[in-house]
Task: inverse folding
């Protein structure tokens, strides 16, 4: 196996679970998340030598996942079926299992742009500037969408909590 393939394989083994969880958070469907990750990794493999030399592997693959998700949502046959309710086998560890449905419902209620900002900022832990670069938007847009998204999430999650305790 060539040195290039060894380095690529090592990266994929190390990062694939996080890539899958991020894709799942963007699209909410386990099968679509697999498709998105596979598409992103295919693009990464083709550009591996250039991306690895630039030390921008994570930034490239994040952008590839966002773009692959956008490509998936633009396909007409994808609009015919609703996103599944199945949770991925490994989800965000910080959220207790019993709250996954409520969290996914809240995330799904966000506009796609807000959902992308929340995933990149709070799941990936990117800075405002990194998120803006990955999404091709201004830092101000990232800040305003983050603020609006978190406000909306608090409202939806508080409403769900109120309904459960009633």
Result:
């Amino acid at each position: 196996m060539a040195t290039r393939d060894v380095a690529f394989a090592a990266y994929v083994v190390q990062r694939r679970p996080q890539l899958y969880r991020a894709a799942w958070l963007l699209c909410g469907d386990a099968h679509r998340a697999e498709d998105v990750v596979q598409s992103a990794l295919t693009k990464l493999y083709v550009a591996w030598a250039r991306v690895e030399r630039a030390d921008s592997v994570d930034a490239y693959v994040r952008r590839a996942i966002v773009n692959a998700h956008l490509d998936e949502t633009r396909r007409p046959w994808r609009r015919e079926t609703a996103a599944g309710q199945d949770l991925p086998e490994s989800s965000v560890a910080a959220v207790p299992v019993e709250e996954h449905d409520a969290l996914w419902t809240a995330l799904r209620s966000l506009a796609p742009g807000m959902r992308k900002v929340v995933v990149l900022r709070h799941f990936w832990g990117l800075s405002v500037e990194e998120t803006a670069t990955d999404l091709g938007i201004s830092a101000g847009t990232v800040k305003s969408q983050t603020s609006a998204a978190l406000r909306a999430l608090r409202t939806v999650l508080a409403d769900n909590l109120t309904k459960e305790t009633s």
In short: The chain has two domains: 1-84, 96-166. The CA atoms of residues 121 and 127 lie 6 Å apart. The chain has seven helices and no strands.
